[in-house]
C-alpha cells in the first residue's frame, strides 16, 4: 500500500495539493522524544513520504509536557541535527527545522513567567495544545502572557477538543484573543471523528484557519492523507490565505 501511495504522488508532486502547502509545520518525526517516531529509520521513512507528497520543508514539533514529555530546546535541537545529517547523507532536498508542541499546564506558564526562551517557528509562532476533554482554567492568562512575551500563539487542532464541540462562540473568542488555528489535514477525512470533521469544516467556512499540518506520528497518518486531499473542504482550506507557504 505504501509503495503504491508513493508512486501515485511521485508522478507529479509539483502539481499536488501538498506542494501548494509547501511546509508541514506540525509533526512528530524526531526520534525517541515523544509518541511519534521511535527510531531514526522511522523518521527517515516519514520524511521520504512527505517529500514524495511535494513538501519542501518540515518543522518538527515534539511534545513538551511538564509531567510526561520533559523535552528541552537543547535536546530537541540535538535530535534535529542527527536527522539533518541522515537526510543529507541520503541526498534528499528537504529543509528541516524544529519547534515544539507545548501542552498548556502549570509548567508551561512557569516557563513564560521565568522568561525561558520557547521554541518557535516563523514569525515567533508558538504551537500549543490543551487537554482534549477539559478546558484550561487559565487559558486567557496563558495567551496574554505569551503575547506579552512577544510570541504568537497557534492552537494545534482546535477541531479535536471535545470541550469545544458545539461551542463556536468559544472558538471565536479564542480567535479574538489573537490565537491562530492549525487544522490537522486528516480531520477532513473523518479520521479522528465525524464531530472533529464537522468542526474543521465549520472553521474553514468561517475562514478561521491559518495553518494546516499533518500531525504525523507514524506512517499510518501519512497513508490517510490522499483521502483527506480528496475532500472538498481540503480544497476550500487551500483557497484560504494559509501561512504555511510563508514559512
Automatic annotation (TrEMBL):
<dbReference type="GO" id="GO:0030145">
    <property type="term" value="F:manganese ion binding"/>
</dbReference>
<comment type="similarity">
    <text>Belongs to the metallo-dependent hydrolases superfamily. CpsB/CapC family.</text>
</comment>
<keyword id="KW-0378">Hydrolase</keyword>
<dbReference type="InterPro" id="IPR016667">
    <property type="entry name" value="Caps_polysacc_synth_CpsB/CapC"/>
</dbReference>
<protein>
    <recommendedName>
        <fullName>protein-tyrosine-phosphatase</fullName>
        <ecNumber>3.1.3.48</ecNumber>
    </recommendedName>
</protein>
<dbReference type="GO" id="GO:0004725">
    <property type="term" value="F:protein tyrosine phosphatase activity"/>
</dbReference>
<dbReference type="Pfam" id="PF19567">
    <property type="entry name" value="CpsB_CapC"/>
</dbReference>
<dbReference type="InterPro" id="IPR016195">
    <property type="entry name" value="Pol/histidinol_Pase-like"/>
</dbReference>
